[in-house]
């Protein structure tokens, strides 16, 4: 066996190259770290600016009058204290969001379960997953246009149920993706143990897999709710909005995003201030849902 002995000159060259490589790596690491820090600071600055503007402009007109009264056509140009509020829009948003969630969640849950438990590696499962991913990234206005052609035109007018259906379609792919991902994280050994005890597959899924993935699935549902709570484009083509409190799902129904859009474009300062209050309510609601989702997910670990 032969050994190679480096000369002092070769050793010096190798040490010099190693030091040079180390300095270059440290420089690149430091540069990337500062770039990431700068991007973080820039993102936080814009986020703080948005939140600060919403708080500054939104709190100006946010009061019990805003929350408990509805739009008044006679309030144009009058003092803000006499202007209409957002009660009709808040109630309409809650109704449509709740119905959309109730319709979309079971469908998304079952489709995600099918993809994770029954269709792994199958061509049909890959096709369903592809369609779900396309739907997840599709512009919401296309969903509104689809429901407009499918529901609004045959019914002869805008309606709250059409708006809820549009929101349900937006909910479905979010729940599908979350459910599939959470179920795939469950170890196969747990499934094999349950099946080995003689339990049928459906019971293994409902009693074991769902329980193990409950926090992740619930988080996905809450994130879907947060997304549809601020949607405007599909509702413009489906429920359209109105200026009175309505519980009739067969007629046009108000919502906060549409009320914000309409009042912000009214040109009257009092209504624009009300629109800022509505924007603050939507933002705080979405923020609260996201915080709850993270708290639920963290509490389960």
Automatic annotation (TrEMBL):
Gene3D superfamilies to which the protein is assigned, alphabetical: MetI-like (1.10.3720.10)
Quote the subcellular location field of this record.
Cell inner membrane; Cell membrane
Note the SUPFAM superfamilies from the entry. MetI-like
Report the membrane topology from the UniProt record: Multi-pass membrane protein
Chain segments annotated as transmembrane: 34-56, 94-116, 128-151, 157-176, 208-229, 274-297
Q: Which residues form the signal peptide?
A: none
Report the InterPro entries cross-referenced here: MetI-like (IPR000515), MetI-like_sf (IPR035906), Phosphate_PstA (IPR005672), Phosphate_transprt_permease (IPR051408)
Q: Which domain of life is it from?
A: Bacteria
The record's section on CDD domains has:
TM_PBP2 (cd06261)
Q: Which UniProt keywords apply?
A: Cell membrane, Membrane, Phosphate transport, Transmembrane, Transmembrane helix, Transport
ABC transmembrane type-1 domain ranges (all copies): 90-293
Q: Name one Pfam family in it.
A: BPD_transp_1
Keyword presence, Membrane: yes
Instruction: Report the family membership.
Output: Belongs to the binding-protein-dependent transport system permease family. CysTW subfamily.
Protein name as annotated: Phosphate transport system permease protein PstA
Q: What is the species of this protein?
A: Falsiroseomonas frigidaquae
Write the gene name.
pstA
């Amino acid at each position: 066996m032969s050994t190679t002995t480096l000369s002092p000159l070769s050793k010096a060259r190798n040490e010099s190259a190693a030091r040079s490589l180390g300095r270059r790596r440290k420089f690149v690491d430091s540069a990337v770290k500062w770039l990431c820090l700068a991007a973080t600071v820039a993102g936080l600055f814009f986020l703080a600016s948005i939140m600060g503007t919403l708080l500054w402009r939104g709190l100006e007109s946010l009061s019990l009058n805003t929350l408990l009264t509805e739009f008044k056509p006679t309030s144009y140009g009058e003092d803000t204290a006499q202007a209409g509020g957002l009660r009709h829009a808040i109630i309409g948003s809650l109704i449509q969001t709740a119905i959309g969630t109730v319709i979309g969640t079971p469908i998304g849950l079952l489709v995600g379960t099918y993809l994770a438990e029954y269709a792994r590696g199958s061509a049909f499962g890959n096709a369903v997953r592809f369609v779900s991913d396309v739907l997840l990234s599709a512009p919401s206005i296309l969903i509104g246009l689809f429901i407009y052609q499918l529901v609004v035109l045959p019914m002869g007018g805008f309606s709250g149920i059409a708006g809820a259906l549009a929101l349900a379609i937006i909910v479905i792919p979010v729940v599908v993706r979350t459910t599939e991902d959470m179920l795939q994280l469950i170890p196969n050994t747990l499934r094999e143990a349950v099946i080995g005890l003689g339990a049928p597959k459906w019971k293994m899924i409902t009693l074991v897999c769902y329980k193990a993935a409950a926090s992740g699935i619930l988080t996905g549902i809450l994130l879907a709710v947060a997304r549809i709570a601020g949607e405007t484009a599909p509702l413009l083509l489906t429920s359209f909005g109105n200026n009175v409190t309505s519980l009739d799902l067969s007629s046009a129904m108000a919502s906060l995003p549409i009320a914000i859009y309409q009042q912000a474009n009214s040109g009257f300062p009092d209504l624009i201030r009300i629109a800022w209050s509505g924007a603050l309510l939507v933002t705080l609601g979405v923020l609260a849902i996201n915080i709850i989702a993270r708290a639920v997910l963290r509490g389960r670990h």
